[in-house]
Structure formats: C-alpha cells, structure tokens
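Marked as duplicate of an earlier ticket. Keeping the data here for the record.
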Amino acid sequence: MPEYPTAIGTSTVDTISLLGHDLAGELLGQISFGELAYWLATQRRPTPGQLRVFEAVLVSLADHGFTPTAIAARLTYYSAPDSLQGAIAAGLLGGGSRFLGVTEDTGKYLHDIVLTLGDTDAWTAAQWDAAARDALTATRAAGGKIPGLGHPVHKNGDPRTPVIIRIAEESGVKGPHLELFEAVGRVHPEVLGRTLPLNGAGVAGAALADAGLPIDLLRGFALLARTAGLIGHLAEERQNPIGPAVYAEVDRNAVYTPPAG
C-alpha cells in the first residue's frame, strides 16, 4: 500500500496535529500567524529576531494602493461578487516581475552572488562595494536586469527600505544579502550612469533571505502579505466600489481599430 509522508499536519477523530504539536492544546493562542508561516516554510521555529524581520516584511508588502493586483481583484469582484476567492486569486496572479515578484527576484539575484563570495563575516563596506560593482558590471554586460532598483512612485527613495534595514540591524538578522543590497545602492550609479532607489520589494527579498527563509519561496511570502491587502480592498469595494467606474471608463473610451487588411 503506498504511503504519502508529510511533516506538516494530520488529524484524527479527536485531534489535529501540526508540525509535531497538538494544534488545539499547544499552538492556539500561543504563537502568532507570522511565526506559524515561518515555521511551516522552514520546518523550524524562528528566533525572535527572525520573526520580527519576517513580520515587518509582511506588513511592508501588504498593500501599495491601486496597484494592478488590487485593481484586478476589485474588477473580478465586480464581475463575480459571488466568488471572493476568484477575486483574491485574480489579484495574486498578477504577482510577477514588476509587482511582488521583485521580492523573490532580488533575493535570488543577491543569493547567487553571495554564494560565490565565501566567508564575508569580516568584510568592510569597500569590499562589499567591490563585489557589487563586479556583479552589476557582469549583469549589465550580459544584458540582464538588476532587480530591486527603481520604483514607479518613490523616485527619491522608498520609505520602507531604510526602516527594514534598521529593523534587521536591531534584531541581529542583517547578513550578507542586505549588505550586498546596500552596496548595490551605493555603486550602481557609477555602473548604470543613473541613480535609482532601492525599492521596498527588493529590500524585502534581501531581508527574508538573511532571516533564513527559503530563496525559492520568497515570492510566496510576498503573495501571503498581499492577500491581506487584497482582502482589505475587497472589503472596501463592498462598501465603496470603484470597479463599476473603472469598467465604464475603459468601456466608454475604447477605440475600435479594425485589423489592417
């Protein structure tokens, strides 16, 4: 008979087990949702510092106004108010290389570089700058994109970035990914010929990597955070809808252009 092992959870007639603990007797009211999310993803409990950074990142990514993800969720809800799950899913499906996915893209970009650097515990800022300069130069020569740089709104600096770095420092969690990300911020103008802000999604990826979260799951944490924001948008849409106006605006201003030939 085939077996399907899992270390996540199971249940019997009288009990629910989660991560080796009795859910009702040991976990409910004892741990936060953020701690549980970290634990589920890593199979280990976070340190207090890791948890503080993780939850700060989740808060930083929960909402950013009328982004395409929020608009998609609201329009889907207008079209199918009987499908809350569809509206949330529509918003999450927009998490990609321009919105939300930057968290994972930046974390992976930095992590691939960090893996080549060896022991960096005693590195100076000058050494980090040299490593960032070499990496950016190689990326630009290969025609690649440098994630974590630039923001469509925060042209003069993303307000989330210095706060997350400070929280990581205070929590003893700042490591090589954030060090390298800061160095990218310092040296990229000389490599790219222009100055761009280090964005919040990028610093989130660096912070999550230093906090010990799996690199290949970083986009999932951005989506976890944004789920809360989308629920907020949908709650507001129920009370003060903008979906009908957005639909009508686009529909009224559509210009039909028959295909040539």
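See parent ticket for discussion. The two ends are 63 Å apart (CA to CA).
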